[in-house]
Design brief:
Helix content is 13%, strand content 49%. By secondary structure, the protein is mainly β. It has a domain of 109 residues: Neuraminidase, CATH 2.120.10.
Length: 394
């Protein structure tokens, strides 16, 4: 007991010494600050003039391009107030609008090039570089549209689950049959069947490569209460599987090619896969994924439900650099990346940022736009009542 009392007494003495030492240091630090402040004040005439106009100089030397956000005239704005189920995209040098059951192609001046009927119950629009695929998810029909006319349309005997269109115009359609959960049929740019492949599990994502010679697809199954996905690479000239990854613990719903392999976007994780199918990078998230955009260089993810009004934009790079997270104080309505810049549409402005989140260009907008497409140095903006056009540079 005596030793315990001695220990407690020594500890009290040690604490008193430490408190006294901290107090002395704090008083000394405050005294030093007062001396420095006095010296700065006495020498103010020698340095104060340097700061005159510093804000103006900083703004003048900024690399951020301030677009005026002025709306184009002529045929714009284009009235869509009586149309529903609208989406906007691009095709070659024109922009496109899907509204109700009609697909429209507009030139940059806002004149209609042509229109085609797509009377589908649940239309899904997939935009390629030179062609657009429109299919009836859960239905039996699809069509392929070009920049000047409708290329072809088909009606199938099995229900369509999903579809994808490649840069060369090749189309991959996944259907559900009595024998297989997923059945893949590939059509060339003329609409001829060139490839078939059956999968016993559910295909949830597919992407066709640049030259239309192959594709990657994600197959998903449930085991032990969790979803797992595998990515398979196919060649349209071979019946053999080129590669198949090990199971990844996510429900994959988007795929894309990148410079060093493939992107897989899942419900709770995103992956960059090497060309041999191994995992190069994993990005796990607990937030609600609300939007994404993929290019050969970047994968951009949008999360909401984090704060009251804002969200998170996460940028993955194909070169394996660290994931950059950009916190936004406003909700993101739409996002798009071409690999060089990332365009973000908010209620009151549109920003372009680089992959590290640095602002490249911005433009104010007075109307809330739900979506947009980028064509040359113009943005075509889809609102609730109109389609507008603004010049945008960075």
């Amino acid at each position: 007991m005596a030793s315990l009392n001695t220990f407690e007494t020594d500890m009290r003495k040690l604490r008193r010494k430490r408190r006294a030492k901290r107090t002395f240091k704090n008083v000394g630090f405050i005294f030093l600050l007062l001396i420095i402040a006095g010296l700065v004040y006495l020498s103010r005439d020698s340095w104060l003039n340097y700061f005159d106009g510093i804000l103006e100089r900083a703004q003048g030397g900024s690399s951020v391009y301030q677009n005026d956000g002025e709306l184009a005239g002529g045929n714009y704005p284009i009235d869509i107030s009586k149309k529903t189920n609208t989406s906007i995209g691009r095709i070659n040098r024109n922009w496109t609008l899907f509204a109700d059951t009609t697909f429209y192609v507009y030139d940059p001046s806002g004149d209609i090039v042509y229109s085609a009927q797509a009377p589908y119950s649940n239309p899904i629009v997939e935009y390629g570089e030179k062609r657009t695929l429109i299919y009836d998810q859960g239905g039996y029909s699809f069509m392929v549209a070009g920049p000047r006319d409708q290329i072809y349309s088909k009606r199938l005997t099995d229900q369509i689950l999903l579809g994808s269109i490649g840069p060369d115009g090749s189309v991959a359609i996944v259907t559900s049959t009595e024998k297989f959960a997923s059945y893949l049929t590939v059509y060339d740019k003329n609409g001829s069947e060139i490839y078939h492949w059956a999968d016993g599990t559910l295909i949830t994502a597919i992407a066709v490569n640049n030259n239309g010679t192959g594709c990657i697809l994600s197959s998903t199954y449930a085991r032990g209460g969790t979803y797992r996905s595998t990515v398979t690479q196919l060649s349209f000239s071979s019946e053999q599987v080129i590669l198949q990854t090990s199971p990844l613990e996510t429900l994959g719903f988007a795929l894309g090619y990148c410079d060093n392999g493939f992107w897989l976007i899942g419900r709770d994780s995103a992956y960059m896969l090497n060309t041999d199918g191994t995992v190069a990078q994993t990005y796990a998230y607990n937030y609600e994924l609300t939007d994404y955009s993929l290019s050969d260089r970047l994968a951009v993810l949008v999360f909401e439900g984090i704060g009251e009004n804002g969200g998170l934009v996460s940028v993955l790079s194909a070169d394996g650099a660290e994931v950059y997270e950009v916190w936004e104080d406003a909700a993101v309505n739409d996002i798009y990346t071409d690999g060089r810049a990332i365009y973000i549409c908010f209620d009151s402005k549109i920003d372009a940022i680089d992959r590290t989140g640095s602002l490249l260009g911005t433009a104010p907008v007075d109307t809330v736009y739900r979506s947009f497409t980028v064509l040359n140095d113009n943005l075509y903006l889809l609102g609730y009542r109109t389609v507008d056009k603004i010049e945008f540079s960075y």
